[in-house]
Amino acid sequence: MTMAFGNRIGAEWRAGVGTRPNINPSDTTDVVGVFAQGTAADVADAVAAARAAFPGWSHSGPMDRHGILMRAAAEVTARAEELATLLAREEGKTLTEARGEVGRAAHILAFFAAEAVRLTGETGPSIRPGVTVEVTREPVGVIGIITPWNFPIAIPAWKIAPALAYGNCVVFKPADLVPACAWALVDILVRAGLPEGVLNLVMGPGRSVGQAIVTARGIDAVTFTGSVATGRGIAAACVAGQPMRKVQLEMGGKNPLLVLDDADLDVAVRAALDGAFFQTGQRCTASSRLIVTEGIHDRFVATLTEAMEGLTVGHALDPSTRVGPVADAAQLAIDLAYIDKGRTEGARLVAGGELLNRPTPGHYLSPALFTEATNAMAIAREEIFGPVACVIRVRDYDEGLATANDTDFGLSAGICTTSLKHATHFRRNAEAGMVMVNLPTAGVDPHVPFGGRKGSSHGPREQGSHAREFYTTVKTGYVG
Ligand code: UN1
User: Fold this and answer.
1) SS in 3 state form for the chain?
2) Is residue 433 part of a domain?
3) CB of 151 sitting under 6 A from ligand 1
4) What is the pTM (predicted TM-score) of this model?
5) Is the model's pLDDT at 1 over the cut of 80?
C-alpha cells in the first residue's frame, strides 16, 4: 500500500478527501506517486493558518528569511539529480532539461534569499518645512499561488521565494498533473525552518481548490501562471472579492521569431529548433511563429527540417532523447487537433506531427513544422502549447515586424539578423515584454524581470528585483 503525499496545512501534513496518482507521460504504467486531493475546507484551514502566522513572519528579521531560503537553495542543489529525475518522470521533459530547471529553482531561491536583506526604503523632505517623508515597503499579506504543469519546480520557486523573502505567507496550489516537485519543494522549505503556517500546500483541481483560493476571505493577492481564459476569470474574481485582491497573471504566448535574409543561418536554425521544440514546445515562451523573409526562406526551411531529424523523441530518462513526450493525453489531443486544423486551413505539414510508438506506452508526438502558413490561421493565432510551429513567409523586415506584432499575445519576440539597424529597431518596436536577438524566444534568466504585454500578462512583472512590486505594498510615512 503506497502512502499518499499529504497537503501541508499549518503544522501538519494532512490527507485529503481522495488521492490522485501522478502518472509518468513517458511510461503510463509508472506511477510517480499518489497525492492528496484537497477541498475548499482545506483551503479555508490553510488560509486561517497563514493568517495566524502572518503577524510573526511579517515582522521576522531579514537575516532569518535569508537563512531559510539559503538552506532551501542548498538542499535543492544537493539533491539536484534526484529532483531532476522526479521532474522528468512527472512532466516528461528530458533529464538534461530537468537538470536545468532544478538548477534554476536553486538560483531563484538564492537570489531571493539575498533580496530579503536588500530591501530598503527612501527618505526625503516634505514640501512642508520640518516634515520628513519616508517610503517603505511592507509585505502584502497572504498570497494565493497557482502554478502550471510545464515548470513543476521553477515556477513554484519563482513565486514562493519572493513571497517569503518579503515577509508574506502563502497558500500554494500546484498543477494537479505535477504535484511531486511542488511537494518536494514545500517539504524542503518547511524543513529549512519556516514557522508553522507560513507556507501551506493544498493539492487538487483548479475548479475546486483553485477556485477556493481565489475567492477565500483572507487572501490578499493571487499570482497565477496558466491559460488566458482561467487568468481572466481569476482577475474578475480578485476584483470582486472582499478584500479586493492584488493580482498577477502570466498567461499564453504566440511568440514570433523573425528571421531576416542577412541572418546567420546556423544561429537562426538553432534558435528556432530550441525555441519551438525543446521541452516539447510546452513553454509559454515557445517560438511558435517563425516569420521568415523571402531570400532565406527556402534555405531556412530545408536546414531546419534536416536539423529536426536529429530531434530523437523518447522516454524522458533515456540519455539519447532530445524531445520528451507530451505531458498528458489531453494536451496530446489538443496538439493533434491543431495539426489537423493547420492542414485543413491550407498550411503544408513538412515535418513530423505523427504519433510515435516507443518501448514504453507514452504520449509521443514527433515535432511538427508547417510551411505556407498565414498569420490569420488558427495555428498562427492560438497558443497550442506543444511541439508544433509554423513558418510564415514575408517580403521584408517591415512586413515581418508588422506580422510579429499582429497577435493577441506579447510575451517574447525574437529576431535573427546580422544588421544592427534592424536588431535595434526590433528591440524598440516589438510589442512584447521580452525581446531576443539571435537567441530563442524561450529560456530566461532568474535575476531579471519576466513578463509580457497584451494577452500574455497582467499586473507587475515576476522575477528579479522587480518581483517586489507584486509581493510588497508601499507605505508613505509623513513625520512631523
Ligand atoms: C522560459 O522560457 O525559460 O510557463 C521560461 C512558461 C513561462 C516560463 C518560461 N512562464 O512557459
Assistant:
1) CCCCECEEECCEEECCCEEEEEEECCEEEEEEEEEEECCHHHHHHHHHHHHHHHHHHHCCCHHHHHHHHHHHHHHHHHCHHHHHHHHHHHHCCCHHHHHHHHHHHHHHHHHHHHHHHHCCCEEEECCCCCCEEEEEEEECCEEEEECCCCCCCHHHHHHHHHHHHCCCEEEEECCCCCHHHHHHHHHHHHHCCCCCCCEEECCCCHHHHHHHHHHCCCCCEEEEECCHHHHHHHHHHHHHCCCCCEEEEECCCCEEEEECCCCCHHHHHHHHHHHHHHHHHCCCCCEEEEEEEHHHHHHHHHHHHHHHCCCCECCCCCCCCCECCCCCHHHHHHHHHHHHHHHHHCCEEEECCCECCCCCCCCCECCEEEEEECCCCHHHHCCCCCCEEEEEEECCHHHHHHHHHCCCCCCEEEEECCCHHHHHHHHHHCCCCEEEECCCCCCCCCCCCECCCHHHEECCCECCHHHHHHHEEEEEEEEC
2) yes
3) yes
4) 0.97
5) no
